[in-house]
């Protein structure tokens, strides 16, 4: 689930929550307690001609022991634009 806003098809801002699942609780030594986990993320991107630069900030672990990461990506569109 996510949202995206764009400005003149050049600048993009994104936010979302993915990977909803039940997993064993970190603090449960008997492996009986399950908790809901999810991965929130925020991001932005720039599109210049056929090149897009993206940045995302996301949590890769559960909420009780977060593992935040920065993800950078570059996409190049080699397809010709039809007029």
What does it look like?
It is a single chain. With 83 residues, the chain is an all-beta fold. It has one domain (2-76). The chain is built from no helices and five strands. It has strands spanning 2-7, 11-24, 34-48, 51-59, 68-76. The protein has a five-stranded antiparallel beta sheet, with no helix packed on it. The mean pLDDT is 86.
Order of helices and strands: EEEEE
* Average pLDDT level: 86
User: What general form does the structure show?
Assistant: elongated
Number of helices: 0
Strand order in space, largest sheet: 1-2-3-4-5
By secondary-structure content and strand pairing, the structural class works out as: mainly beta
| Overall strand count | 5
- Measured as a percent range, the helix fraction is under 10%
Strand content is over 45%
The largest pleated sheet is described as:
5 strands, antiparallel
Rg of Cα set: 18 Å
Tally of distinct domains: 1
pLDDT < 50 stretches? none
Could you give the distance between the termini?
32 Å
Helix-strand layout with pairing:
Elements: E1 2-7, E2 11-24, E3 34-48, E4 51-59, E5 68-76
Antiparallel strand pairs: 1-2, 2-3, 3-4, 4-5
